[in-house]
């Protein structure tokens, strides 16, 4: 396990590093309440993807990284903290493979720190703001609470809604980090993550579950050069539900 200090107060981002001989470095970023090791290790060592130096990085507030309470956990703050960690790791012009909220952060990272990202593979990533929605398990449900409500009772209600698989990593997150990240993910960025993605001039792949049907304005993404791939036999966690298709399409996106 490796780490880098990413805040003036000394908070550290940590990652598991898989050595490799092939350039460029690959960076894996998890979704809200997740951790890159449990979600991405099998993919990083899959025969179609193994060989490159791979950083399975946990965002600040999640997994094995520190959980400071004096950070606002906007998408921009997440991206800037990852940028500090990548520079500490001497990882430039990387391939970033990012799931869900991690995909939104990866788009912001590529827009704000273009020297660090050469190619993107977004795995059912958030592209647009969403309205807070009580009783939903994801960011919109968490964002429906005030921070005080979430720290008091809301996190226990969320635990019961998300189920044991998601909660196994969500329980590792700092509660303030989880709530603030969800609020800012639901709120999105200005310009939106979608608009930032459309403006990037790097190879971009977007993997989505086939069963969900087309993305909003999927034709617009394709027209802007984004390779959109419907992946069969999977839900939101594409890399876990259909690892073979995930590895194949990710490898194609990084070819």
Account of the protein in words:
- The protein is α/β, with parallel strands linked by helices.
- It has a single domain, classed as 3-Layer(aba) Sandwich (Rossmann fold).
- 41% of the residues lie in helices and 20% in strands.
- The protein contains ten helices and eight strands.
- An eight-stranded mixed β-sheet has the order 1-2-4-3-5-6-7-8, sandwiched between helices.
- Helix 1 links the parallel strand 3 and strand 4.
- Helix 2 crosses helix 3 and helix 5 crosses helix 6.
- The longest helix is centred in the middle third of the chain and has 24 residues.
- It is globular and about 45 Å long.
- One of its GO terms (molecular function) is hydrolase activity.
- Keywords: Hydrolase.
- This is Alpha/beta fold hydrolase.
By secondary-structure content and strand pairing, the structural class works out as alpha/beta
State the order of secondary-structure elements, H for helix, E for strand.
EEEHEHEHEHHHHEHEHH
Number of domains: 1
The CATH class designation is Alpha Beta
Under CATH, the homologous superfamily reads: Alpha/Beta hydrolase fold, catalytic domain
- The dominant shape is globular
Low-confidence segments: none
| Sheet with the most strands, sense and barrel status | 8 strands, mixed
CATH topology: Rossmann fold
Task: Report how far apart the termini are.
Answer: 28 Å
Strand order of the largest sheet: 1-2-4-3-5-6-7-8
CATH architecture classification name: 3-Layer(aba) Sandwich
- Overall pLDDT score: 97
E-strand count: 8
What fraction of residues sit in β-strands? 15-25%
So how many helices? 10
Instruction: Report Rg.
Output: 17 Å
Share in helix: 40-55%
